[in-house]
Write a structure and sequence with these properties.
By secondary structure, this protein is α/β, with parallel strands linked by helices. It is built from 9 helices and 10 strands. The chain has helices at 47-55, 76-82, 98-108, 115-121, 137-147, 167-182, 194-200, 218-227, 241-249, and strands at residues 9-18, 21-31, 36-40, 62-67, 70-71, 83-85, 155-159, 186-190, 203-208, 211-216. Strand 7 (155-159), helix 6 (167-182) and strand 8 form a beta-alpha-beta unit. The longest helix has 16 residues, at 167-182. The structure holds adenosine-5'-triphosphate. Adenosine-5'-triphosphate is lined by residues 18, 21, 23, 41, 43-49.
Length: 255
């Protein structure tokens, strides 16, 4: 096993093709314990493929993926016990109650959990007897994060966790991600929302055509751009349209 200073995630020169399509073309990075690491990039850049290789869901053609000192290809079972993967919304049964859904996933992981306690961690304990179909979009997203927590993972993978949410629900998910990080988990997050990456990520990898074209803290990446003499096209205002919306509609969740 590795020491506490070693990176929790190591991606080493990963390559993956689907037929003639090169999806990942030599990606390498480390993620430190307790970091939120963002993967940004246009559609089809290779983010999901990279993340699935780290999760042990997909084999790389070459290169290595290591989670907490364990080679994912050699020992996927040990890796799966250490990680949490946020499932997409359609992975759930509409008619099951939330406690039953959490229970089901806990059984899959042979984890002993109190479903209500897990639901309370994502602010859904008050809906414990509701059926999945009765939840709002934001509540469904939070449930999908809750089930990823049943095995108390040391690494959590979140794939576009706020896509389709209103600004209030998005902020609720951001607070949840920060709380999970404060609890000690390391998080890999893919997102197409730059303000989300800026708010949550300690470091970001920008991926294009299967390669990392920039990697650093959000501040460092912005500083690098400004050093090139970059001037924004639009004058930057002190408030955003997001601020206008939240000021008009309030910060409370509409659930
Ligand atoms: P998005 O932001 O749209 O989720 P992404 O960065 O996650 O994109 P990937 O899903 O990893 O990108 O896709 C990388 C490339 O591999 C794309 O050209 C995609 O069409 C292709 N690809 C992904 N999955 C498969 C598959 N199962 N079979 C064939 N090609 C695939």
């Amino acid at each position: 096993m590795n020491s506490t200073n070693d990176p929790v995630i190591v991606a080493k020169d990963i390559h993956k093709k689907y037929g003639d399509i090169v999806a990942v073309n030599g990606i390498s990075f480390d993620v430190r314990r307790g970091e939120v690491f963002g993967m940004l990039g246009p559609n089809g850049a290779g983010k999901t493929t990279t993340v699935e290789i780290l999760e042990g869901m997909r084999d790389a053609d070459s290169g290595e993926a290591i989670i907490s000192g364990v080679n994912v290809k050699d020992d996927p079972t040990t890796v799966k016990a250490m990680i949490g993967v946020q499932l997409q919304q359609n992975a759930f049964f509409d008619k099951l109650k939330l406690t039953e859904i959490v229970d089901l996933y806990a059984k899959l992981y042979l984890a002993k959990v109190d479903p209500v306690e897990i639901l309370s961690r994502v602010g859904l304990d008050h809906r414990k007897n509701s059926q999945y179909a009765e939840l709002s979009g934001g509540q469904k997203q939070r449930l999908s994060i809750a089930v990823a927590l049943v095995n108390d993972p040391i690494v959590l993978f979140l794939d576009e966790p706020t896509t389709g949410l209103d600004p209030q629900a998005r902020r609720q998910v951001w607070a949840l991600v920060k709380a999970i990080q404060e609890n000690g988990a390391t998080i890999v997050l893919t997102t197409h929302y730059m303000e989300e990456a800026e708010e949550l990520c300690d470091r970001i990898a920008v991926v294009e055509d299967g390669q990392i074209i920039a990697l650093g803290t959000p501040d460092a990446l912005i500083d690098q751009l400004l050093e090139t003499g970059f001037k924004p096209e639009k004058r930057v205002r002190e408030a955003t349209l997001d601020d206008v919306f939240l000021n008009l509609t309030g910060r409370d969740l509409r659930e």
